Amino acid sequence: MTQAFDEIMKRIESAGSISNDEAEKLIAQHGPLTDEEKKRLAESLKKAESKDEEEAAVEKNAEPDAEESADVTMEEYLNALATLDSSDVNDEEKARAIRIKDRFESQ
Predict the structure, then answer these.
(1) DSSP secondary-structure letter at 64?
(2) What is the 3 state secondary structure string of 5-60?
């Protein structure tokens, strides 16, 4: 692995993410990444983001409300999946969609 890859991975592991500016500076300083390294970094970032979203959803819903105890319909489940596939939603909407998806799949 290149030194740029190692440095970027250290930042992702310690902070959970890295800004584009930081990554570009490290790449400029240590040299370009290989295609395989780019794929591995993308996977690491996705895992870190998923973990953050799940933790936020768990923290937000420490006590389930009345909505949480009801069964989830197929329509609600499909809407939740569409929300998760969309890139134009905020963190709160994603967290709600994750809860709906998980509740449906555990029924």
Answers:
(1) -
(2) HHHHHHHHHHHCCCCHHHHHHHHHHHCCCCHHHHHHHHHHHHHHHHHHHHHHHHHH
The domains of the chain are located at: 1-48, 61-107
CA distances to 79, 100, 105, 106 from 73, rounded to whole Å, are 10, 9, 11, 12
Alpha carbon of 15 to those of 19, 35, 44, 64: distances in Å? 10, 23, 12, 29
pTM here is 0.49
- 10-45 exposure pattern, b = at least 16 Cβ within 10 A, e = fewer: eebeeeeebeeeebeebbeeeeebeeebeebbeebe
Over the stretch 74-104, which tens digit does the pLDDT of each residue have? 999 999 999 999 888 888 999 999 999 999 9
